[in-house]
Amino acid sequence: MKITPELKKELKRIMWDYSVDENTLWAIWEGKSATFSLNRNKLRSRLLLSTSWYRLLDCLGLNGLKEVLTDEVINSIWIKDIREKFIYAQKALHGIVNEVAFRWGELNHFPLFSCVDNETNILSNKISCISRYEVKDIADIWVLAKRLSFSWRDIMSIAGQKSPVDPVEVSKIIKTLPLEELKLIKWAFDVNLDEVYSDLQTIAGDILVGRPNTLKDF
Predict the structure, then answer these.
(1) Which residue of 137, 184, 186, 208 has the fewest CB atoms within a 10 Å radius of its CB?
(2) Residue 212's beta-bridge partner residues?
């Protein structure tokens, strides 16, 4: 894995309390060296624990992040909830390709909602409270994603200003929603629940890598 300037900057930030020169640090990152208290797995797990998810993507790239999320690195994380978070990310990233062609445009206006609260705020509000595990919130996210053009990274940033949100956890909640839960909703229009469920898998993947919404039919 190429050590980019962004990755170097992040490694120096997280290793502020270690007395190790830069060349040794890069060698440890690549698995070419180790010290009594620091090896590649420990350095990489420290990066995972100390850096926000989208910042990790910026520093490592999708393929680089996949390379870092090994069983050895993840298992070195002793906090169970955090370890399970990265186990999910490891599995979810497996089928996501690095390069995707997007058509991108301005946010669309959706007249169903009040002008007082625009569609971006509605979507970000749904994301910010997704930890309530309300299936109706997830259904609303699906409706908005089908109709609007936006960047999921932007939506996560807006939602994070209202309540702490973790893209990995949001992705996991959406991806692991049981199909049976969708049957509990009183839909205002006819839907194919199998298609909705499939779309939710797409949304979960888009959120995980912070890309523009690919569900919208441009």
Answers:
(1) 186
(2) 151
Is residue 214 included in any domain, yes or no? no
pLDDT in tens, 22-50: 999 999 999 999 998 899 999 999 999 99
Provide the angle, in degrees to the nearest 10, between the axes of the packed helices 80-93 and 53-68: 70
Work out how many domains the chain is built from and give that number.
2
Reduce the DSSP state of residue 212 to 3 states and report it.
strand
Read off the DSSP letter of residue 170: H
Tell me: do 46 and 12 sit in the same domain.
yes
Q: Token digits for 155?
A: 């939506």
Contact 168, 85 (CB under 8 A): yes
- In whole angstroms, give the CA distance from residue 76 to residue 93: 20
Do 89 and 130 lie in one domain? The reply is no
Residue 110 lies in a domain: no
CB 195 within 8 Å of CB 153: no
**For residue 195, with 0-12 CB atoms within 10 Å meaning exposed, 13-18 middle and 19 or more buried, which class applies?**
exposed
Helix (H, G, I), strand (E, B) or coil at 85: helix
Residue 195 tokens, joined = 């298609």
The residue-averaged pLDDT of 134-162 equals 93
**Tell me: the pLDDT tens digits for 82-103?**
999 999 999 999 878 664 433 3
Q: Is residue 112 a part of any domain in this protein?
A: no
- Residue 101 in any domain: the answer is no
Question: How far is 32 from 16, CA to CA, in rounded Å?
Answer: 21
Structural domain range at position 38: 5-93
- Both 88 and 134 in one domain: the answer is no
